[in-house]
Amino acid sequence: MKELFQRLRIAAYMSAVLTVALGIVLVAWPMEVTGLICRILGALLAVMGAVYLFGYFMEGRGILSVAGGLLFLLLGVWIFITPTSIATLVPIVIGVVLLVHSLKDFQMASEAKRSGSERWVMMFLLAFLNSALGVVCICDSFGLVSVAVRLLGMALIFDGISNIIIVYHTVQVVRRAAEKIEPIDVEAREEEL
User: Fold this and answer.
1) Is 78:55 a contact under the CB 8 Å cutoff?
2) What does the H/E/C string look like for the chain?
3) Residue % of the chain over a pLDDT of 90
4) Which one, out of 35, 94, 176, 191, has a CA that is 20 to 30 A from the CA of 28?
5) C-alpha distances in angstroms, 44 versus 30, 73, 77, 114, 139?
6) Is the pTM of this model over 0.90?
């Protein structure tokens, strides 16, 4: 039992250290890591597209196999060649969604003002903040990706450090509890029937 507990403790420490290391890598090189992940995704899509095309030429699969294969192949090659383009598209899409929602929010704030609501100014300010965030997402999508990856890295570092602390204190508690347990010394007696 003691060996199992020690192996579990070592595995927990190793996992925590690797988590901290990954977090440090994400904080130090956010765009490089994002580019690598996008390149891996691009390569997988390109291989999938090639498999579809190969299936069409070797097995005579339908025309959809050719269309799907070409789409996956071209998309995979595009992502592999320009990996940050995919990473920066996400904040742009989110920015457009925020802008559309903010337009609706402005409209509702105007309706609230016309209806005599006293909170229309707060609603207008919230709509303005929403639209400003949308513009930031669209204009600085590259910076937002970098910040998001860094935040992810910081979360991993925190997770790893907190796991090390928790494992350490758990080991200390278990050791103290084991030291308090004293063996009971009893004499064996045979009973007569």
Assistant:
1) no
2) CHHHHHHHHHHHHHHHHHHHHHHHHHHHCHHHHHHHHHHHHHHHHHHHHHHHHHHHHHHCCCHHHHHHHHHHHHHHHHHHHCHHHHHHHHHHHHHHHHHHHHHHHHHHHHHHHHCCCCCHHHHHHHHHHHHHHHHHHHHCHHHHHHHHHHHHHHHHHHHHHHHHHHHHHHHHHHHHHHHHCCCCCCCCCCCCC
3) 17
4) 94
5) 21, 9, 10, 55, 30
6) no
